[in-house]
Structures are given as C-alpha cells and as structure tokens.
Amino acid sequence: MPASTQPERVPLVTRVGGMLPELRPAERRVAQAVLADPAAVARESITALAQRCDTSPPTVVRFAKRMGFPGYPQLRLALAKDAGLEEGRTAREPLSGTLDASHTLEQVVASIGYADARAVEDTSAMLDIPALTAAVDALVNARRIDLVGVGASAISAIDLDQKLSRLGLVTVHHPERHLAMTAISLRSAGDVVIALSHSGSTTDVVAPTALARSQGATTIAITNHPGSQLAQAADITLVTASRETTFRSGAMASRIAQLVVIDCLFVGVAMRDMPTTQAALDASFRAVADL
C-alpha cells in the first residue's frame, strides 16, 4: 500500500517507517531524521534539513512526494499536526520511543507503553479490510494452513497456530527454513501459507512464501513494510504499523502489532460459523479443564 493511499488517520511517522526499506540512501537519511524527531523537522527549513541529512533540497522534495505530498511545506504541516496530536494525547512532549542510559525506569515504562499503544491503534487504523476479508475467506476454505515465522515472528506464528487449531483447522508452524521448504513443497491449490516478518525481507520467510505461491497455494503476508519482498511474494498482504528505534532487535512493538492482525484474523474466521466455533472452543476447553 503506497504511502499516498494509506489512510490519513495513520500518523505520518508510522507511514514513513513502513516505507523506509523502499527509499534511496539519501531519502532514507531524511526519513530517519523524521523518525528520530518529527517535531524538529516540522520546524526546519528545507535547506537546514538537507544540510543536516547530508543531502540536497531536491532530495527532500522527492522524499515528500514519496510520502504523498506536493512538496516540503505540506510535509512539514503534516508533521506539525501529528506532533501536536501526540502532545495532546500524552499531555507532554511527544514520545519518540528512543531510549538511552540517561533515561529513568519511569521514562522507559512511559516510552514502551506509548510505542505498544500506538502499534495497536495505528495497525487497527491501517488494516486493509478487503485484504482481511480475502484472508479470512482463504482460511475458512483452506484444506491445510502452514505458518512460517522465524525469530521474534515465530512467537506470533505460534499464537496464530494455537488459535486456528482450536477452531478445528489443520495448521502447522514451521520455525525454520528447511522445515518450511520441505513441507510447502507438497502444497498446492486449496492450501494456505501465512508468512510473518516485520521487515518483510527475511529470506527464511520469503523463500517458502514464494515457493508456495508458485505451486498454487494462497499466500498471506503479515509485515510492516508494504513494498517488501514478502509483500511482493504474497497474494494477500496485511500491513502492521509499529515504530521501533533503540531496541528494535527486541521486536517489541512489532510483535504487538502482529498480534492485533492475528486476533482480527482469528475472530474473522470464528464468526463465519458461530455454532461450530462455539462447539470447538467448548470441546478444547473441556479437554484441559480438569488437568
């Protein structure tokens, strides 16, 4: 989903983060300045921002157009608006999520709570309902469902595996590439593969997804980057929206965003046949109630 077509209610900073992998190096430096301190960029002239990012004013203009604006003044206005909304929401200076050794534990808690809450709100706002409907249709009619997620995304994949299996669907999670490739080599039309990767560039996830699609299986990607390799390899893409900076390797807000999409998928499938769903959930509950 290009930045210009994403819902306006999604904060600009979130959209910039989603476009980051698609930008040229010079444009990426401008984007990183926006992500680091959007309020500061909103106050800067185009010349000052270009100098700070070691680039030229025309590059800043190109970046603004990539984000769906006619030029830099409109980009600054949108950033100022978002910064004002954030300040009103938190009753303090907008939080960026960036942490260092000087921050207190109280500030750490505030920043993490902010990032996680925004991941939920922004992902809900950004979620493409027609794409979600298509994904639910595919799962309801699936003969078999394979889930591919490695590293931090494996945690989200396990959660979805458990949820769908409780509805009586035939699911299996592959936590590493060789297992995924082996199993998916036997898939075809009527099967569904769900692939999860925040970056959308994890080769261990992209390769099985591409293989599944080449064999006729329906492929669903859950990623933060709509222009990523994973999104391009999938039939259906569900885009998350999370901002992570200092501890990105911890995959914190991205995991929360993935779980929002997973819960929407689960409930969407469950509501297609409520009597069957209730019977399946009751049966699985009774099976462990006395353990």
Automatic annotation (TrEMBL):
Keywords: DNA-binding, Transcription, Transcription regulation. This is DNA-binding transcriptional regulator, MurR/RpiR family, contains HTH and SIS domains. It comes from Ruania alba. It holds the Pfam family SIS. Residues 135-275 form the SIS domain. One of its GO terms (molecular function) is DNA binding. GO terms for biological process: carbohydrate derivative metabolic process. PANTHER family: GLUCOKINASE, HTH-TYPE TRANSCRIPTIONAL REGULATOR HEXR-RELATED.
